[in-house]
Amino acid sequence: MDRLQERFGIHGSLVFVDANFNSFEVYRQCSRRGWTALIGDKRSTFPHKSAKGRKLERFYSARNRVAVGKNGCNLHRFSTLNVKDCLSRLRRNQDPAQGPTWEIADDVPEEYIAQLDAEQRIRKNDKWIWEQIRNAPNHYFDCETMQVCGALMLKLIGQESGTLGKRDGGSVDEDAAEFEA
């Protein structure tokens, strides 16, 4: 990852790393390199305050600091359901006139595509969830989800970007969409 970061000139804080597995080691590496740790969460939104002090709900948490190493590391939690919904919506839209689209390289391996299709949105116990299909590997789907989370955080997509409508900024559930309170 260091080589890719250097090759593309990506600032360390914009390198997002999944901290759901082996969290302490991820935090340690993020602290050492200035990277940002992400953890999926069952909550639909997280409280924020706008620059004017208004209450906002977003699909990701405010920055948390994890005390590890000399510097500690930044950690954000994100709504697994809503961010995966955003990814699904982006993948379905292939018309740039209708908003942001999802694109992929022509030479991506079939395994990558298979992993992107390794989860489905289902209703379970009266709640919507994303569930793995037959325990198929889904690591690349998780990576794409975290890229969408980063894009939402940077306001490149979603309601606050000005490129999508309210219902396109997140969950199909109106109450869970990104909004100002």
* Mean pLDDT score: 88
SSE order, as H and E?
HEHEEEEEHHEEHE
- Overall 3D form: globular
Q: Could you give a short account of the major beta sheet?
A: 4 strands, mixed
Strand content: 15-25%
Account of the protein in words:
The chain has 181 residues and is α/β, with parallel strands linked by helices. The chain has one domain. The chain has 5 helices and 9 strands, in the order H-E-H-E-E-E-E-E-H-H-E-E-H-E. The strands form 3 sheets. The chain has a 4-stranded mixed sheet with strand order 1-2-6-5. Helix 2 links the parallel strand 1 and strand 2. Helix 3 crosses helix 5 and helix 4 crosses helix 5.
Short description:
This protein is an alpha/beta fold and 181 residues long. The protein is 29% helix and 23% strand.
Descriptive tags:
181 residues, alpha/beta, disordered C terminus, globular, 3-stranded antiparallel β-sheet, 29% helix
What is the topology?
Layout: H1 2-8, E1 16-18, H2 23-33, E2 36-41, E3 46-49, E4 55-58, E5 64-66, E6 73-79, H3 80-92, H4 110-116, E7 119-124, E8 127-132, H5 139-153, E9 179-180
